[in-house]
Amino acid sequence: QVQLVESGGGLVQAGDSLRLSCAASGRTSSYLVMGWFRQAPGKEREFVAGINWSGGSTSYADSVKGRFTISRDKPKNTVYLQMNSLKPEDTAVYYCASRSITSMNYSYWGQGTQVTVSS
After folding, report:
1. Rounded to an integer, what distance in angstroms lies between the CA atom of residue 83 and that of residue 45?
2. What does the pLDDT read at residue 26?
3. Cα 102 to chain center, whole Å?
4. In what order do the strands lie in the sheet with 18-26?
5. β-bridge partners, 12
6. Is the dihedral of CA 84, 90, 92, 94 positive or negative?
7. What is the DSSP string of 74-96?
8. What angle do CA 39, 45, 48 make, to 5 degrees?
9. Which residues 6+ apart lie within 8 Å of 49 measured at CB?
10. Angle made by CA atoms 31, 34, 40, in degrees to the nearest 5
């Protein structure tokens, strides 16, 4: 099992940058996909970015392509989400999650970290 803890959220102005971190603990393996999701009040949770732990391949939601970058530091067991050119519509609680590489279901979730982007 994997335990996930997000950090790095905060209040910024439009155009600013933030880097979110997701520290993983517990049993891990190479057969994992790590993902970032976000949920704004009154809206459904949406996929933001994902990364294959072993190979490093990535995927992004269209809304963040070119602005956000997901990465991982294997020795530190940490996944990052670098967010540049932030917009007010990026305001949400951001969650780190993980799933088996053979599954579509994200089984493990962090507690979330708030990102607020002012105009």
Report:
1. 18
2. 72
3. 20
4. 2-7, 18-26, 78-83, 68-73
5. 117
6. negative
7. TTTTEEEEEE-S--GGG-EEEEE
8. 85
9. 35, 36, 58, 59, 60, 61, 64, 68, 69, 70, 81
10. 155
> Across-strand partners of 49?
36, 60
Give the tokens for residue 53.
């732990």
Tokens standing for 7?
A: 């950090």
Tokens of 86: 């932030």
Task: Find residue 34's DSSP bridge partners.
Answer: 51, 98
pLDDT score for 82: 98
Q: What Cα–Cα distance (Å) separates residue 61 from each residue in 22, 35, 36?
A: 19, 11, 10
Q: What is the pLDDT at residue 1? A: 72
Query: What is the predicted pLDDT for the residue at 29?
Result: 64
pLDDT in tens, the chain (119 residues): 789 999 999 999 999 999 999 999 876 666 789 999 999 999 999 999 999 998 999 999 999 999 999 999 988 999 999 999 999 999 999 999 999 888 889 999 999 999 999 99
